Amino acid sequence: xxQPVSIQTKNGHVLLRxxxxxxxxxLAAYLHEVSDEVKNRFxxxxxxxxxxxxxxxxxxxxxxxxxxxxxxxxxxxxxxxxCGYLSHDKPRWxxxxxxxxxxxxxxxxxxxxxxxxxxxxxxxxxxxxxKELTVSGIQHVILWGGVQSDNIKAIRFYESFGFETKGTFDxxxxxxxxxLSIDFPD
Length: 186
Ligand SMILES: CC(C)(COP(=O)(O)OP(=O)(O)OC[C@H]1O[C@@H](n2cnc3c(N)ncnc32)[C@H](O)[C@@H]1OP(=O)(O)O)[C@@H](O)C(=O)NCCC(=O)NCCS
What we know:
Elements: E1 5-9, E2 12-18, H1 24-33, H2 36-41, H3 49-55, E3 62-69, E4 74-83, H4 90-95, E5 105-112, H5 121-135, E6 140-143, E7 147-148, H6 152-160, E8 164-170, E9 174-181
Parallel strand pairs: 5-6
Antiparallel strand pairs: 1-2, 2-3, 3-4, 4-5, 6-9, 7-9, 8-9
Bound molecules: coenzyme A.
């Protein structure tokens, strides 16, 4: 597990670290306060405390990461890594000719609160997460529920890391399935 990392941003110092059991109240407050735009884009679990507790009741399956505003210790970014993939996604990935290995693949969902978007929080969180994934031998990262095709900001974000679009599917509108293949040094 990576040590917490402190970064300097235009809005102040931010700590990147794993979510812990002590974060329940802070995470619930973050999810309560994010805009409808973020709520509509980010949906791996419901936003109330029981749903958060249930989501993390299998600690080895879902791993949370947070970006914390050092000035007041509030959460300003939250991302999830699920080990493997959602079972109902498998046929879709197979239809693209990709037979994902649940041991070497994980599923990713990021969010940053509006006032902190566009200043590198998402990028630093994903870099932080990728370091952990590389050590764990993960070879592919796919998106939780894909990305809505009108979510240009997120699509550019993923593309800037080298995610590639493999297909399109309909679920409350059009979505792209994107995947990042992690290269390992020889
Ligand atoms: C997508 C999201 C996580 C990105 O996080 P962020 O902190 O705003 O992004 P960063 O500031 O780290 O920017 C990283 C890259 O994203 C892209 N990006 C960020 N803001 C952008 C914008 N307004 N327009 C186009 N591209 C943008 C750029 O490629 C940027 O790299 P650059 O700064 O080198 O140009 C964040 O915008 C978010 O939480 N959105 C709402 C929830 C969401 O859509 N989650 C994804 C669901 S699939």
